[in-house]
Each structure stands twice: as structure tokens, then as C-alpha cells.
Amino acid sequence: MGLAAVDETLYASLTNELPSFLGSALLRSTNLPSLPAVALQVLEVARSPKASLSDYARVIERDPGLTARLIAAANSVHYLRSAQPTQTSLEATQRLGLDATLATVLSFTLFPWPTAEDAALQTWRRAIVAAVVASKLARQLCPAKVGSAFTLALLQDIGILAILTTYPDEAKTLYAERHMPHARLTTAERHRFGSDHTRVGAWLAAKWGLPSPIVHAIYQSHDGFLTDDMATLCLRLSGPIADAWFNPEPSNALAILLKQLAATETLPMNAVEALFHRLPEQIDLLTDILDLKVSVPMDSQTLLADAQQLLYQHSLTLTARLDAQQQQLNTLQLHNTALEVRSRIDPLTQLANRAWLEQQLKEQFSLCNEQGRTMSVVFIDLDHFKALNDQYGHQTGDLILKRFGKTLASLTRSGDLAGRYGGEEFLIILPDETAQTAKQLAERIALYLNEQPMLKIDQKPLYVTASMGIACLNDGNFSNERELIDAADQSMYFIKRSGRRGISVHGQD
């Protein structure tokens, strides 16, 4: 069976996705798995939801060896107890049913020889269990796609067979750990081969000439449970459930899987419960027909109940852990908030520090320019502060600065920002204030200083005066916030040169 034009394109695309060394090695492999024409025709029949068992029988009987294998399976001990031996392909297909027929065909074509306890056998056992799971799920979620669900689950890991035949020694080491989670397995494959078995499997399926929907399904078979397509969900769930089935601790593995499903909300719990009804019997029947012994750790209903109980316990433990973590997070956030506040505050005056003043002024400057609003700044310098320090000492100077900080905090609005710019210099940022309203604030500060002493020394009041400069965004062509501060600073120095104790407005004095 040759490749169609569209398949040629798909095959070329998948070949380009493989590292060159891997693609070359796969093509050179003389033992690469292959499907004869009859198997490809059977898979084509399986794609049709209207296919009958007689359709399968007509295709299978074209291959005498496959027909003999199918009749032998139908005449196995499971069926001969109460029935006459089958003699034709149709009788065998009718007795086996769709799932067993498909499994027998693919088993005969992909595993025509007895296999030992190796990775290939483990892969085929997993595929059989996954196929039974996919078929049972499909009967509930998408009955028209039961046949294709079974087939795709059987084929989802064929890439492992290709890797095993191409790199037998390295693959044997890689796949030696029987119960390695598939996510870790694909990571190990990518690390060693530059690709994983889903990509290699899709490439092999395209090389065989399988229809593109099968190729794409294999390519995406391990992509997670978030999908609205129920047939895709059946396929992607089948492998992880088979992994849980073979896990040494199946209840725990299944509980983890149920937790993942609960998070996605893609599969109703009644579908999970129905899946585990008589699941061991169906797996046993199929694996016995194919001479693949699969040990069942416990009754499937007990397995599901134990997994659900473990999930409940995990949820309780997780809730307690999350509560503790949330408390720690809240404490940390409070601590970080306190640190952030402290990083903005001048420790002596409890006003904003210079860094915070400059950051806020930069943001306000940009915002006012963008929105066509105004703003003003008031630059304040306490007069003769060095002389006060020299006369009364630095402790007294610090008390004056502290008291003046409280004064500014009491006279400014909540939307304003007052801060210590450095030494005895202070800055007030006044969003939406003109030079005139900013001057009114400066006058209130001057009046307060004139009427209220900063300290009493030996019962004598100590008054402080200030030189203040004002600059408004509307009163100059300021290109940045630095120029606005400089204008207010220059206005303040005009007052200091004029004898101190006064207010000057940029552009007006």
C-alpha cells in the first residue's frame, strides 16, 4: 500500500521534526516494525463507525497466516468450553468480537514471534490494557468511535518498538525501569535521542501509510486531559490508567490520576466508576487470548474505592498544608509590606525619603502631562539650621527636624506627598495644584512657624523660619521632573539670597 500525496507531506514534515541522526538510524534499521497490507486494510475498516464484523472477516481472510492465528484465538480455551470450533474468518471474528479481533491482528503483525520478559512485551501489555480502557470509556462518552478508540490506544506507543529495534542496547537500559512514569520516560527519551516515542510513533505510522487522523492521534496521545473531544480524551486517559494498573501501588497511582482529572473537570466521576466495572475480566480475557499474562493487584472496585479514599485523605492533608502555607504567606506579605513602607520613609521625620519623592514626582509628572493636568512642588529649606546645630547640638537639630516633619504632615492633604529631600531641605508634591494654591499652603506653613515654636530650651521658645520656592507645571516649559525641582530650588535660593524667611514662585518673582 503506497502513501497518498497528503501522507507524503505529513511523512516529510514528521521526518524533519526528528533529529537527523535519529531519522537516519531509524531508516537504516533492518528490524523496524512494519504492517502488512492486510493489517493496514483492517485499520482502515476500523475507522468506519458502520463497519461490521463481516467487513473485518473479508479483509482478514486474504491473509492465510492471519486467518489461522485468528481462528486459533477463537478456539482458545475461553471459547471451546461451550461452543463448536470455528473454521472460518467470519466465525472467528464473530466469536472474538471487535476488540479481540483488532488486538489479535495487530499482535500477529507486530509480534509474530514469542517474546520474552522485555520492554517490547511490557509495551504491548500496556497497550492491551490501555486499549480495553479506551474502548470502555468510548462506549460511554463517544459510542460511534469505539473501534477507533481501541485501535489508537493499541498504537499509541509503537514508537517505543521503533526505538527498541533501532537502539536495542541503549533502549534496553532506558526502559529497564518498568514502572517509570510516562512523563519521566518521554523526558529521558528526549534527553538521549532528541525526540520521544510519540513523535517517533507518529513518524512510523506515517511511514506505514496510516491515515493522517491516526498519525495525529499518536502524535498527541500524551498531551494531557484538557480537551473537548471525547475520543481524544479516551485515548489520552487510557495510557495513564494502564500505568496505574501496572504500578506496584495502584491505589496511590490511581488517586494521583483522579486528582488530575478533578482539576480539569473533563470527565464525570460516574464514567470513571463505570470504567472499573468488570475491567479485570475484560483485560484477563484479551491478554489470555494473546498469551500475555497480566497480574491484577486487586478487585477493580476495591482499587477504585481505595484510590478515592486516598484522594480524600490527600485533599484533607493538602487543605491543611495550604492553610499553613497561606498563613505563612500572609505573614510574609505583612513583613514585606512593612519593609516596603520602611524603604520609603525617612526614619527621623517619618516623611517620604528622597528616593520615594523622586520616584513619585517622576510618575506624577508623566501622568499630568499625559492627561493635561497641572501640578506644583514646594521646596523648603529651614533657615540658619547649621547655626542652630552648632549652638544647641545635633540632638536638638534632630528634634527640630522631627517636629517640622510632623508640622508638614498635619498641614498637607492626603493626596499630597511631603518628604525630606536631604539635611534640612524638604519637598512637597501637590498634584492638581496651581502655583497660587501651592503658595497658600506655603503661607500656612510660614504662619505656623511664626506662631508655634519648634522647641522650648530652658523654658524659652525656639522659633524656626523657612525659605520656600514654588514651581508649577503650567508656568514653565519643563521637559522632565528634574527641571521642575530645579526651578523650585532656584526660587528658594532667591529667598535665601534676599534675606531668608519668605516665599518665591518661579516665573512670578
TrEMBL record:
Gene3D superfamilies: 3.30.70.270, Hypothetical protein af1432 (1.10.3210.10). SUPFAM superfamilies: HD-domain/PDEase-like, Nucleotide cyclase. It is an enzyme of class 2 (transferase). One of its GO terms (molecular function) is diguanylate cyclase activity. Residues 32-224 form the HDOD domain. Pfam families: GGDEF, HDOD. Its EC number is 2.7.7.65. PROSITE patterns: GGDEF, HDOD. This is diguanylate cyclase.
